[in-house]
Amino acid sequence: FIAFGIALLLSICNALTFAELALSLPRQGSIGSYAEVTVGQFPAILAVFAGYVVPAIFGLSAELMLFDSVIGQLFPGLLPNMGWAVVLLATLVALNLAGTDVFATAQQLLTFVIIAFFLAAGLAAVSGPAAAGPAW
Does the reported pTM lie above 0.90? Predict the structure, then answer.
């Protein structure tokens, strides 16, 4: 719970900081425009890099570690540590280099599976035996 409290405090401070900046600069703003007004243009470029580019770079590694942890618990001992992450990353890289739009294909496949499941559940509910009422 301590980590949640610290994260809550940091989130509130972040929100209050942006609220104060939005009130003091009545134009559309971002990390770059706020930093440019306060510390100059070059530090603003660094702030944008630190605020947008770095999290985008490290976000993938965190997601791969989470994927490896979950699949490693489902299939223990099948691959070494971070093996599932390497397999997933290699698969996505190969599909990307082949020109396959992974996300559109996955979305279409998942949509088909969901619709098929709903149809099967609906048909089973309609054609199945009637449920017995309460025996009061």
Answer: no
